């Protein structure tokens, strides 16, 4: 399997953490991509392999021999969890599946707000301070909602925790001034421990290669 | 179950089409929401019921008695399909699941581009023509990729077809000048038939109430 990645993306990070937690490193070849800063407002030129892997033109993208192409992180995580992970990160069905997907859908709200805000900050013209504020509000609202769920987290890592941890890590990487810990103090205590896992330590965000 | 909706959203439409195709209309109460045009760049005031249903602050949101809250259309469709639909729109597992999720992830690329572009067009200041063009490019690239998949579509409606049809319908509603049919002529022929289903005719897009 080929996975197209960058070191800055929290969407990529949740996939890579999942790969490590499932022990699938040997099955996945990581292909670094480069993104000029004008990705935020321009259609940039895509490497032919990447263009074949995903018409969306975003990372992560997974390409599997035999023709499966998956163009978003949730679908990639579901595929790895089901086909190679014995459903250890997300149950195939039942109440626990919906509890986890409910948390994941809130964490997606954070990740989308984080990346939309990043794209706005990369605009050299027509940057909207109001839009940035709206994305900040959404993120903090979602962190506060997840703070009420911490006691229900399982002992073993699962896809909701992994996704939330990627959001916490990206908040620290790009938006430390927001202080998500003030909005979510119980989540902050949980993250203190979770962030020390080898899968977290080996995937810390770094700048996207241009 | 309570579903928070607006008549303009293609994300909402795919959920409502799924509800109709699964025959679940009696189980779901639709709650119309109102969105002032400054939703694009401002945190707007949320109705308390809606705020309780989703911290993300976006539609659709599903609230189920007993505490399940689902904050995005894919998760809602998965829940309805699994818990009330006997997996008729998306298989629980196996090769067909990944084939459909692969198409769905491309269709999501279109829907996200359509809504990001709409939000940009609603900006009264700091509107970026380049961003609008980037979103247009992404949408047409994804329509062209889906055009190559039409022959593999099943005879019965499934979640990939429903999601793609919502994208086609929104393109006609907001961006008719793009001419997605030129980029995807086989998809256009498929849509001519699919768009005549009762579930499609009864969910045609209309302006969001302000």
From TrEMBL, chains A, B:
UniProt keyword Heme present: no
GO BP annotations listed: glutathione metabolic process; L-phenylalanine catabolic process
Keywords associated with the record: Transferase
Keyword Cell inner membrane: no
Xref: SUPFAM superfamilies: GST C-terminal domain-like (SSF47616), Thioredoxin-like (SSF52833)
Domain GST N-terminal: 1-88
One Gene Ontology molecular-function label: glutathione transferase activity
Matching InterPro entries: Glutathione-S-Trfase_C_sf, Glutathione_S-Trfase_N, Thioredoxin-like_sf
PANTHER family per the UniProt record, alphabetical: MALEYLACETOACETATE ISOMERASE
Annotated protein name in UniProt: Glutathione S-transferase
Lineage start: Bacteria, Pseudomonadati, Pseudomonadota, Betaproteobacteria, Burkholderiales
């Amino acid at each position: 399997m080929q996975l197209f990645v960058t070191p800055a993306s929290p969407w990529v990070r949740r996939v890579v953490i999942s790969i490590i937690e499932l022990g699938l490193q040997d099955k996945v070849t990581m292909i670094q991509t480069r993104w000029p800063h004008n990705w935020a407002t321009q259609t940039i030129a895509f490497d032919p392999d990447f263009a074949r892997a995903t018409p969306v033109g975003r990372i992560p993208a997974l390409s599997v021999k035999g023709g499966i192409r998956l163009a978003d992180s949730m679908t990639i995580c579901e595929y790895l969890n089901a086909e190679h992970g014995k459903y250890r990160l997300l149950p195939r069905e039942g109440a626990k599946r919906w509890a986890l997907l409910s948390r994941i859908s809130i964490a997606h709200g954070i990740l989308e707000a984080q990346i939309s805000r990043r794209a706005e900050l990369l605009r050299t013209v027509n940057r909207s301070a109001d839009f940035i504020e709206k994305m900040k509000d959404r993120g903090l609202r979602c962190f506060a909602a997840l703070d009420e769920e911490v006691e229900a987290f399982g002992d073993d890592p699962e896809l909701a925790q992994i996704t939330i941890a990627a959001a916490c890590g990206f908040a620290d990487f790009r938006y430390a001034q927001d202080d998500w810990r003030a909005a979510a103090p119980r989540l902050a205590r949980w993250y203190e421990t979770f962030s020390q896992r080898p899968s977290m330590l080996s995937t810390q965000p770094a700048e996207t290669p241009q």
